[in-house]
Amino acid sequence: MTPPWNWRRESSVGLLGLVGVALVVASLRYAQAQPNPTISALLLLLVVLATATTAPLRVAIGISVVAMLAFNFFLMPPYHTFAVDDSQNWVVLFVFVIVAIVGSQLASAMRTRTREAEMRKREAEEVTQRATLASALLASFSHDLRTPVTSIRVAVTNLQDLSLTPDERRGQADLAVQELDRLTRLFQNILDMGRIQASAVSADRNWIALNEVIEAAVAYVGPVLAKRRLLIDTDQDQEVQIDPRLTSVALAHVLENAASYSAQDAPISIGASVADDAAIFVVEDHGPGLDPADLEHLFEPFYRGKKTRHGMGTGLGLAITRGLLSAEGGKIWAENVATGGARFTIRVPASARQLSFQES
Question: Is residue 46 in a domain?
Answer without folding.
Answer: yes
